[in-house]
Amino acid sequence: MVKKTLFQLHWFFGITAGLVLALMGITGAIWSFQEELLRAFNAEVLKVEVRQEGVLPPAELVRRVEAAQGDQVSMLWVDTREGNAARIFFTPAPGERRGALRYADPYTGELKGEVAGLGFFNLMLNLHRFLAMGDTGRQITGACTLMLIFFCLSGLYLRWPRKARNWRTWLTLDWAKKGRAFNWDLHAVFGTWCLLFYLLFALTGLFWSYEWYREGLNRLLADQPAAGEQKRGEGRGGRHGPPKVDKNAPPRVVDYDAIWANLKAAAGPDLATYNLRLPPVGGQPATLFYLLQGAEHERAFNTLTLDPASGQVKRHERYADKSFKAQLLQSVYALHVGEYFGLPGRIIVTLASLTMPLFFVTGWLLYLDRRRKKRQVRAARGAVGDQGNAGDSWLIGFASQSGFAEQLAWQSAGQLQAAGLPVQVRPLAELGEAQLRNANRALFVVSTFGDGEAPDSARGFERKVLGQPWALEHLDYALLALGDRQYPHFCGFARRLQAWLGERGATCAFSPVEVDNADPAALALWQQELTQLTGARPVAAWQAPSFGNWHLLRRELLNPGSQGAPVYLLGLQAQMPATWEAGDLIEILPRNGQLRVDAFLAGLGLDPHCPVLLDGLQENLAQALASRQLPVGREHLVGLHAQALVDALIPLAAREYSIASIASDGALELIVRQERHADGSLGLGSGWLTEYLPLDGSVSARLRRNSGFHLPGGSVPLVLIGNGTGLAGLRSLLKARIAAGEQRNWLLFGERNRAHDLLCGEELQGWVASGDLQRLDLAFSRDQAEKIYVQDVLLQQAAEFKRWVDEGACVYVCGSLHGMAAGVDAALQGMLGEVRVQQLIEDGRYRRDVY
Known about the structure:
The protein has 851 residues and is of the alpha/beta class.
């Protein structure tokens, strides 16, 4: 919850304050090298010849420039070593903070000409600090600076990886990524590089934004003044306004010779720069800042407070005598622009400032992508509602095992509604004679489960509806059938539904569209047929959720020493914030291992490093083949050039896995058994995840909602039944229940041997000890002469199981379809009867995620 809230605040503030921070970054970078740039473009004005006799004393310099300007000097800034022109400020006009600025030769007193570009840099500073909007702009930049601190800290928390000690995870950019994943990588990796600099900018920049912050820093860092001394800044004008002037005060008198003598006595031969600031009237002290050669940085000034009329020193503050914290306070500006760390620091700080727009741009791109996906979801579901009466509306019925058919039903409804047609969307379980008789037009989106069976949620519909002698001559319908051609009865349930509708006189608007494993071409055909049926202009093709980049955090063997295949607990972490519900699935795109690719290329005479195009991007041949199905027979491929070879091969299909964790765990976990074929080769998906994918390696994956296996609403008992890696889906449900404080949980789990195959055994026993798992019954098929399976244990506990069901328990089954799931289903019907089992299915109290 905290992470989700921080993420929402991070992007909301980012898309609002990001533009201001981008402007502040650019203008700050430009201003930071103002002096060097001005000198480069105004060398004839700002550079002077260094003379052996040294710079003029202040008295003579002031006399000459005042005579030339016709005005009194209020401030001198003189460099005694580098051949730079002196900066002279003259008495400001009433209401102004500073007077006219002129540059002069400190060796001759000659006033120099105008400086080109000075107005531009003043504008940059005005934009940087005030957005050229005065005090209102200062409040805005101050607020955005506070937000920058929040961005740094929340961004660090949001991207904190499990392997925090791996510097590559923090600091390296994967240039092979593209689209949203690459934008996220840019945002996160460059943000890590710039994090400390942005915190430095913010914590020092607030010094000029808020009086309370400045006073707080002074109290925290300043050394205590000696008794009777005035704190620096007391009695002076505000930082952003003109100095306060007593109209009855005497005129200012300045003894420049005495001031110069005291400066030379204090600084000695190492004087490098001095800055004399005179009060506007008499009776007030003057301040003289001076810098010594070899100073720690350009702002490591020493300070003399003097009586301007006599030159008498009232206070002398040496930078070297201050405590470290007081030195930091004096160096706020040097820290802000990087001067504190010398020229390398200034360059690094400037580069960090220039990258500020990158975060605004990538943040907006990520926001727009997120908004686009939300619009797609709303278009598919939220924007569709019941409209009109039943006869006027299109009835859209769906039967879904994993949620895909439901998703397509809502997308179909969205397409009809976009054409101005009213719709009603219902699961088949809610359809009966009245709904079918009242409907004139209908779409059916149905999947087939297992070997030609109806999805669990539609088993009651098939039993109660199919075979009924209802007259449906008035009904025009279309059918979208989802299935898998690996099974002999492909789209079996959909075909039985079609046959019954035909027998009852319903008219099929166009030939049923059968979809094998979410085939995009078949889905596009269905969309095209709907477009022709409704008469609406074609709409954009439906887009499946894109695959994102995930990283393998850990891989733990759960059954060392087992007689069966190795089972691993895998931890994955998404590049982008990801969330899911207990019971959901993840689809992973596997890749061929390097040995498999090398073996396939052997004898084809092709260079594995040869560049080819794959989905519009350039990769080398070996990389491209890793994502393609590699046939055993290659005779038909001999002689093809590299690009033709890639084009001739079919992409690998995604593998689907039950998620074994909940989002608040901080990582997505899977329980995967390593499959090994008869020839010794590893299964494609399991081999990639358990063997070939390196730790911290990248894997393409996407989450898929599995609403049919989500937890029930309300506080009811839960019976969880599974075997082997089916523990994954049950584990996520258990974790969610425990997090919600629900302890009425019963797990029945089966495997081979207790000694080696009790997957996540310590965790399960810990839940039993804490009371979060009320019952744990285990079946180990190889621990005794007679094999005992989980359905056998269920039958042994028949009386207790019936009591739980009578008390409202929901039953969840996860694991292998053939064997375990079928055996459990038979056991349930034997204990409860077929009618009651069907009722549990229709009530959503018997749910399965089996494979």
